[in-house]
Amino acid sequence: SDFSQACQAAHHLLLSHGKAVQVFRQGGYKGQIGIVIDVHRHQPASEGEADRAACQRAYESGPGFFLTPLFKGHYPEMLMEWIGPHAPRVQTGDMALISQPIDFLGVNHYMTFAVSFSPRGGLLKTGSNFVSAPNWGHTTVGWGINPAGLTAVLLDLKEDYGNPKMYITENGCAAHDIPDANGFVADWGRVDFLRAHLRAIHDAIQAGANLHGYYVWSLMDNFEWASGYGPRFGIVRVNYETRERIPKQSARWYSEVIARNGLEE
């Protein structure tokens, strides 16, 4: 509800990331350290200048707000000029701390937005709608399904941020899970979703994206923020009354993908 404080809090999040990386390096700990960012696809609703500029503001106030300082050592210039006095207060040394090298970037991806200029769109003057590829429709939480958006995101990260080592740390969908008498869910729609997105990341890898892994959200149905236990994202069904775990059709299918380390054409 306070844009200035939101921007400053985001800056403090980035500083805490930088300090954590610093401590990790100083301690000589085993393993790798990185950061996970929600990176959804933003595309202008039209080729008009107003929509293109609105799309840039929407991106820069979302993933770009974090990615640009992490990989370029400064906040997005166009956005900072637009928000003016709401920009975060940056002290000497902050950006060097934030932009120190990391070992990987985690990418959470679920959706594509078509962004337009909107005079009623708050400080940023933007409006957005979900984009669905032809014949894909929406998930049960109303999100559009656009597998090609994931390819585009990975290639944008390759071109704009130096092609860091990347992992897809979240990707999946809420579906109409209807269990049979034995509690089994034949969620072929989720299988189609996962298959299409794995093909999308394969396309990105073929085009040079430095992607090293993929993680489905989620292994099990769980608590989905403000939506509670309503939406089910898991490939394993959880009976919330008995706590029984029953692998869905998607879990059986995905186990075969893991065993092959790839899709079967």
Please report which band the strand proportion falls in: under 5%, 5-15%, 15-25%, 25-35%, 35-45% or over 45%. Answer: 15-25%
Count of DSSP-assigned helices: 8
Q: Gyration radius, to the nearest Å? A: 20 Å
* Secondary-structure element string: HEEHHHHEEEHEHEEEH
Ends apart, CA distance between termini: 49 Å
Largest pleated sheet:
4 strands, parallel
Instruction: Extract low-pLDDT stretches.
Output: none
Q: Biggest sheet, strands in spatial order?
A: 1-3-6-7
Q: How helical, in percent, are the residues?
A: 25-40%
Number of strands: 9
Q: Tell me, rounded to a whole number, the average pLDDT.
A: 97
Structural class designation: alpha/beta
Q: What is the 3D form? A: globular
Describe it for me?
This protein has 265 residues and is of the alpha/beta class. Helix content is 40%, strand content 15%. It is built from eight helices and nine strands. The strands form three sheets. Strands 1-3-6-7 form a four-stranded parallel beta sheet, covered by helices on one side. Strand 4 and strand 5 (126-130) form a beta hairpin. It is globular, with a radius of gyration of 20 Å. The termini are far apart. The mean pLDDT is 97.
